Amino acid sequence: QARLEESFETLKEHYQRDYSLIMQTLQEERYRCERLEEQLNDLTELHQNEILNLKQELASMEEKIAYQSYERARDIQEALEACQTRISKMELQQQQQQVVQLEGLENATARNLLGKLINILLAVMAVLLVFVSTVANCVVPLMKTRNRTFSTLFLVVFIAFLWKHWDALFSYVERFFSSPR
């Protein structure tokens, strides 16, 4: 019975130690759980605050975008109205010009023909100037010295003489080659 009591006391002490150890562990776990719960509550509150801030920012951005789109739509509407006004003015001017053109069609045709005639005359004058300048560029080397000048003058007189008496010269040459010997 004494051994049984001793064994019971040992077992009681052992259970008492285990009980105190379990209670200490349980207290630590409870403390840790409370800390985790506080952290979770803090995080939940922070998350809710962030969501609230995001909602407020979204609402603010939505208002800004609505205002900007309203401003842009108004600017576009003003630009369209200005464009329509310009188009109306241009159509009115075109109608007025058509009336003026119908009245002055004869004058315009005459002016147009005169302008074309002047352009043709200018083109002919340009061709003549090019021809004269080409002839002058060809003649200038032939007139640089006295000998060249006299030779050129003699050649021109000889060509003029041949030109003037071409018929007689041609008939003489023809008789010369055609007559039998």
TrEMBL record:
It is found in: Membrane. The chain crosses the membrane at residues 117-140, 152-173. It comes from the Eukaryota. Residues 26-93 form a coiled coil. Keywords: Coiled coil, Membrane, Transmembrane, Transmembrane helix. The keyword NADP does not apply. This is TMCC1 protein. The keyword Transmembrane helix applies. InterPro entries: TEX28/TMCC.
